[in-house]
Amino acid sequence: MMEQAAKDLIVLDFCSSTYEMELEDYSLPADQLKFTATPKEAITQSKMDGERYPVVILCRNIPIGFLVLHDWNGAKQYTNNRRAILVRAYSIDSRYQGKGYAKQSLKLLTAFVKKHFPNKNEIILAVYHKNTVAQNLYRKSGFTENGTRLMGRKGELIVMSKVITNELLDPRIPIVKSCSL
């Protein structure tokens, strides 16, 4: 179900077959493909793993970004917290990069997780050491390094996390963000 759907707002929604077809044209430059899976690859893996939940980032109902939320079987390699959920395969389509959509979508992520995974108290992710652009984005979005570093298939990974509090969201902060294509 779409989070407060509106034509001109950034929203997060679980991926459906409709979005899958629209994601066929998703574009990422080669230097970013070194660090993340394409939506098509991630959706294929999600269909084989019931603990992976593909999510689309929409602007005016157009998929502009993508991520997967992975439950305990994915999270456990990065944390001992069984109530953590892992973000993987996060990206913004190259045609929409540089417009602030990544930061907006990450701000919405906490509310999305709180609503759809109410037992979770932490969002974690692993980012490649060489991917400094992503590290800076995650820091600006409230993620902090948790002190764990691991070796991934393509190099050293930095594990970052964001605690989900039980406090109500600040009513001055909208659950959806404006966008302009």
Which bin fits the share of residues in helices?
25-40%
CATH superfamily: Gcn5-related N-acetyltransferase (GNAT)
Query: Cα-atom Rg, whole angstroms?
Result: 15 Å
| Overall number of domains | 1
- Estimated structural class: alpha+beta
* Count of helical stretches: 6
The proportion of strand residues reads 25-35%
Write up what this structure looks like.
- The longest helix is centred in the middle third of the chain and has 16 residues, at 101-116.
- The protein is globular, with a radius of gyration of 15 Å.
- Strands 6-7-5-4-3-2-1-8 form an eight-stranded mixed sheet.
- Strand 2 and strand 3 form a beta hairpin.
- It is built from six helices and eight strands.
- The chain has 181 residues and is an alpha+beta fold.
- The chain has one domain: 3-Layer(aba) Sandwich (Aminopeptidase), CATH 3.40.630.30.
- Residues 1-8 and 170-175 have low confidence and may be disordered.
Q: What are its keywords?
A:
181 residues; alpha+beta; Aminopeptidase; eight-stranded mixed beta sheet; globular; acyltransferase activity, transferring groups other than amino-acyl groups; N-acetyltransferase; GNAT_dom; Acyl_CoA_acyltransferase
